[in-house]
């Protein structure tokens, strides 16, 4: 089961951001395992001109 919530700003603006939170639950009955994952992701971009932009995106 997966739950996801997020927010994005307008991508045509000079400064844009987005963030997303995910919660994933899984159950493996064969090995009696229950797992729960939480993930938070964010992106920040700044557009200097039509040809130049910079961004921050974490990776795991």
Please tell me about this protein's structure:
With 60 residues, this protein is mostly beta strands. The chain has one domain. The protein is 0% helix and 67% strand. It has no helices and four strands. The chain has strands spanning 2-8, 15-28, 33-47, 53-56. It has a four-stranded antiparallel sheet with strand order 1-2-3-4, with no helix packed on it. It is elongated and about 55 Å long. It starts with a strand and ends with a strand. The relative contact order is 0.25. The model has no long low-confidence stretch (mean pLDDT 79).
Describe this structure in a few short sentences.
With 60 residues, the chain is mainly beta. The chain has strands spanning 2-8, 15-28, 33-47, 53-56.
Count of spatially separate domains: 1
Q: Terminal Cα separation, in Å?
A: 21 Å
Globally, the shape reads elongated
Strand order of the largest sheet: 1-2-3-4
Radius of gyration of CA atoms, rounded to a whole number:
17 Å
Q: In what range is the share of β-strand residues?
A: over 45%
The number of distinct helices, counting runs of at least 4 residues, comes to: 0
Structural class: mainly beta
* SSE arrangement, N to C: EEEE
Q: How many beta strands in the DSSP annotation? A: 4
Question: Major beta sheet, specifics?
Answer: 4 strands, antiparallel
Helical proportion? under 10%
List unreliable stretches of 5+ residues: none
